[in-house]
């Protein structure tokens, strides 16, 4: 395909963190195919980040009922979707497709270059998830590794707050309780920080984190915190981008903060750090051989102040 024209489609489902870890794929495609229309087929609430950050030109929802037929062994496949897929010269899919049913059905749409990527990086390797997700691009002679997800365009759109307080964004939840620092430790640390009137906490929480977010908010003075609950992801991104510091767990929101370039302190649990650690210019990870319960409020305070003072 001529690098100055054509259309590329990247198909990516998954949660927030999965998508952000795939952003370097879009970044490299944009770098090597700068004039090519680049589109993402994914969950709009998450995939829209690629459009708003300038890495993709358009986003289409993967939640359409018609796509279900593409996972059946024998059609019929919807003509409108066949027409949609026929527009692309290159299709890169990260869908779980062990029997190649989706690939076989999509290829009915015409002669395009179809590349299958991993649905999920291998937890048992030492290869970072980003580098694993970039490997399929080797079929396009793109061999770059060590990339950092870049959502800095969203950060630049954020108007700096004029208030005198230092905003600290925190996410006390994750996709699993095993990845969470004990809530009593969060409360202890936040209450200690609130004794300094310069700090203001923005608590980020989604539906899965509602209880943790609301419980923590109840234990903090009203003047010391705001609760950012169930907000659209681009809105969450811009709010975090206006913070001096982010503190969270092994979660998609931590990957989001790192991609925004916000100094980030990540309290790490049982997951493979080499594979899943958030990549960013200002990311510090705290872990303990005793697990998350072994991380003390003093450690978090020390690293938080260091990062806010410009440490890396």
Tell me what you see in this structure.
This protein is α/β, with parallel strands linked by helices. The chain has 2 domains: 144 residues, Glycogen Phosphorylase B (Rossmann fold); 156 residues, 3-Layer(aba) Sandwich (Rossmann fold). Helices cover 34% and strands 17% of the residues. The strands form 2 sheets. The protein has a 6-stranded parallel sheet with strand order 8-7-6-9-10-11, sandwiched between helices. α10 links the parallel β9 and β10. α1 runs parallel beside α10 and α7 crosses α12. The longest helix has 17 residues. The mean pLDDT is 93.
- Let me know the CATH homologous superfamily of the largest domain: Glycogen Phosphorylase B
The CATH topology assignment of the largest domain is Rossmann fold
Strand content: 15-25%
The CATH C-level class name of the largest domain: Alpha Beta
Strand order of the largest sheet: 8-7-6-9-10-11
Topology, number of strands: 11
Provide mean pLDDT, rounded: 93
Sketch the topology as an H/E string, one letter per element: EHEHEHEHEHHEHEHEHEHEHEH
Radius of gyration: 21 Å
Low-confidence stretches: none
- Measured as a percent range, the helix fraction is 25-40%
> Major sheet: size, sense and barrel closure?
6 strands, parallel
In whole angstroms, the N-to-C terminal distance is 42 Å
Overall spatial form? elongated
CATH architecture of the largest domain: 3-Layer(aba) Sandwich
């Amino acid at each position: 395909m001529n690098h100055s024209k054509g259309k590329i489609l990247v198909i990516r489902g998954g949660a927030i963190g999965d998508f952000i870890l795939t952003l370097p794929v879009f970044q490299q495609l944009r770098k090597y195919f700068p004039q090519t229309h680049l589109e993402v087929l994914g969950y709009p609430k998450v995939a829209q980040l690629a459009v708003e950050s300038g890495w993709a030109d358009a986003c289409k929802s993967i939640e359409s009922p018609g796509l279900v037929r593409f996972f059946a062994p024998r059609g019929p496949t919807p003509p409108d979707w066949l027409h949609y897929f026929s527009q692309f010269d290159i299709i890169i899919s990260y869908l779980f497709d062990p029997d190649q049913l989706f690939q076989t059905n999509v290829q009915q749409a015409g002669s395009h270059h179809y590349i299958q990527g991993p649905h999920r990086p291998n937890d048992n390797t030492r290869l970072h998830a980003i580098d694993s997700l970039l490997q399929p691009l080797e079929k396009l002679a793109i061999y770059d590794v060590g990339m950092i997800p870049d959502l800095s365009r969203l950060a630049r759109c954020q108007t700096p707050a004029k208030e005198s307080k230092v905003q600290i964004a925190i996410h006390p939840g994750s996709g699993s309780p095993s990845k969470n620092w004990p809530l009593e430790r969060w409360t202890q640390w936040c209450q200690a920080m609130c004794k300094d009137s310069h700090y203001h906490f923005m608590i980020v929480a989604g539906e899965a984190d509602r209880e943790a977010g609301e419980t923590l908010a109840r234990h903090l003075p009203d003047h010391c915190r705001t609760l950012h609950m169930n907000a659209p992801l681009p809105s969450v991104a811009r709010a975090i981008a206006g913070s001096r510091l982010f503190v969270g767990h092994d979660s998609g929101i931590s990957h989001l903060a790192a991609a925004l370039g916000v100094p980030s302190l990540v309290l790490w649990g049982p997951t493979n750090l080499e594979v899943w650690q958030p990549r960013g210019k200002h990311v510090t990870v705290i872990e303990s051989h005793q697990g998350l319960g072994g991380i003390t409020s003093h450690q978090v305070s020390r690293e938080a102040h260091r990062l806010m003072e410009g440490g890396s």
